[in-house]
């Protein structure tokens, strides 16, 4: 349901469904893969420290996609302000986010207080508000948003009361930033952050989800928009949350569900944004072709004199981003990763490089996919993609496995491959 009862949304275009930032995941390569499947969802960069951004040393901010948010980390108001200018002026981002929710010791456990950021910012409300204010002042066009949690605590048993981990504390945090900087869009991970006792993975599992508090914030701050993050594993669940309570939420953010099963992104524009289904429907083959062409562009930008080591490093990063396209299919991730390693070794290991091997990355990638994926998998329309995948996998023969040696001259699986046992789980 639309947000008609709450007036015009302050959230940036595409924020109705956003792909959460993930360290070493939402790279420019993964974002290109996402954009090959959805034109409407908002993609986010990995968190980049303002110092690296200021010095133009952050590789993750390289931008070619639309509807993209640059996420910054740091606790220095001046440094963050300069980083906003770079994100907007050098890269053209229309939204810049300040991370106030990451619980990792790498960002929260620094010795000097002024160097701690992430979830530590929620413990220093004045500093967080000043950072947001300076960022807003430095921005000419880009919207400034804040990503935070529903509080911070030190007791990992979740049994003790801590005044920094309650609804009233979060209300004060949001109010301080809104009044100081005019920020009108908050992305809320609907859990508390546990400092010093849980690693980031445990911080996504042990603190309970508190969706009701996010909806309460929508009522508390009628002039602000809120996006809910945390524990959303399917488009159906995202749609249900967006429709809940007359559409109070400005958006829903999903992360690990898309990292694990990126093909779900092919359904986003239809299910979440109400667009007509693609004609013809997207398939793994068409997505891989689009992404491969993006890879060709990456190599073209690097120039013909790229050295062998860099040539393979780029190919490895490109393949890593696309390696989840086989999730839930008969191919399986292990088999696809082995095929990828074989492709990288065969096409990118030669020293000196074979001058006759000038095939584009898109050709190498497609050949790799055709080698291990049946045509039925490659050409199946990506419509109503299930979060759990097809729930089948193949057990390879003990010695040979399913690789190119087990295929006939025409590329079809031979008797050995056909004899693979299918197991349903």
Helices, strands, pairings?
Layout lengths: L16 E3 L8 H8 L6 E3 L3 E2 H5 L13 E6 L3 H13 L5 E6 L4 H4 L16 H14 L4 E7 L2 E2 L13 H15 L3 E5 L3 E2 L5 H4 L7 H10 L4 E5 L5 H9 L7 E4 L1 H5 L7 H4 L12 H19 L5 H15 L10 H16 L12 H12 L2 H4 L13 E4 L19 H4 L2 E4 L1
Parallel strand pairs: 1-2, 1-11, 2-4, 3-4, 4-5, 5-6, 6-8, 7-9, 8-10, 10-11
Antiparallel strand pairs: 12-13
Helix pairs in contact: 3-5, 5-6, 12-13, 12-15, 14-15
* Uncertain regions spanning at least 5 consecutive residues: 1-5, 391-425
User: How many helices?
Assistant: 17
- Sheet with the most strands: spatial strand order: 1-2-4-5-6-8-10-11
CATH class of the largest domain: Alpha Beta
Number of strands: 13
Task: Write a compact overview of the structure shown.
With 425 residues, the chain is α/β, with parallel strands linked by helices. It is built from 17 helices and 13 strands. It has two domains: 4-271, Aldolase class I (TIM Barrel, Alpha-Beta Barrel); 284-424, no CATH class.
Q: How would you portray this structure in words?
A:
This protein is of the alpha/beta class. It has 2 domains: 4-271, Aldolase class I (TIM Barrel); 284-424, no CATH class. It is built from 17 helices and 13 strands. An 8-stranded parallel barrel has the order 1-2-4-5-6-8-10-11, surrounded by 5 helices. Strands 7-9 form a two-stranded parallel ribbon. Strand 3 (48-49), helix 2 (50-54) and strand 4 form a beta-alpha-beta unit. The longest helix has 19 residues, at 284-302. It is globular. The two termini are 36 Å apart. The model is unreliable at 1-5 and 391-425 (pLDDT under 50).
């Amino acid at each position: 349901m639309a947000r008609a009862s709450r007036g015009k949304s302050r959230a940036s275009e595409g924020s109705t469904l956003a792909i959460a930032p993930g360290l070493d995941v939402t790279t420019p390569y993964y974002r290109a893969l996402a954009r090959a499947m959805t034109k409407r969802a908002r993609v986010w960069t990995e968190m980049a420290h303002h110092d690296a951004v200021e010095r133009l040393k952050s590789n993750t901010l390289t931008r070619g996609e639309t509807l993209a948010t640059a996420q910054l980390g740091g606790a220095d108001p001046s440094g963050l302000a300069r980083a906003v200018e770079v994100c907007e002026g050098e890269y053209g981002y229309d939204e810049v986010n300040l991370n106030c929710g990451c619980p990792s010791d790498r960002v929260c456990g620094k010795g000097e207080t002024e160097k701690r950021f992430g979830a530590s910012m929620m413990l220093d409300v004045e500093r967080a508000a000043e950072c947001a204010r300076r960022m807003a002042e430095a921005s000419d066009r880009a919207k400034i948003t804040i990503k935070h949690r529903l509080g911070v605590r030190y007791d990992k048993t979740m049994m003790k009361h801590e005044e920094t981990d309650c609804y009233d504390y979060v209300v004060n945090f949001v109010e301080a930033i809104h009044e100081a900087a005019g920020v009108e869009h908050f992305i809320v991970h609907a859990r508390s952050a546990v400092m010093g006792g849980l690693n980031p993975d445990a911080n996504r599992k042990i603190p309970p989800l508190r969706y009701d508090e996010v909806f309460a914030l929508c009522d508390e701050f009628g002039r602000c928009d809120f996006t809910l993050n945390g524990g959303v594993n399917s488009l159906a669940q995202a749609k249900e949350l967006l429709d809940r309570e007359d559409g109070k939420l400005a958006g829903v953010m999903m992360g690990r569900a898309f990292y694990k099963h990126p093909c779900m992104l092919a359904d986003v524009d239809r299910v979440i944004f109400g667009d007509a289904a693609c004609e013809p429907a997207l398939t793994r083959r068409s997505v891989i072709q689009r992404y491969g062409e993006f890879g060709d562009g990456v190599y073209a930008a690097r120039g013909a004199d790229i050295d062998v080591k860099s040539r393979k490093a780029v190919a490895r990063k490109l393949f890593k981003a696309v390696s989840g396209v086989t999730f839930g299919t008969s191919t399986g991730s292990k088999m696809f990763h082995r095929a990828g390693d074989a492709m990288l070794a065969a096409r990118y290991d030669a020293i000196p490089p074979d001058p006759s091997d000038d095939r584009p990355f898109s050709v190498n990638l497609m050949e790799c996919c055709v080698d291990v994926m049946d045509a039925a998998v490659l050409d199946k329309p990506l419509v109503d993609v299930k979060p759990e995948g097809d729930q089948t996998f193949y057990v390879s023969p003990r010695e040979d496995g399913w690789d190119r040696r087990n295929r006939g001259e025409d590329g079809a699986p031979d008797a050995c491959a056909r004899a693979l046992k299918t197991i349903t789980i």
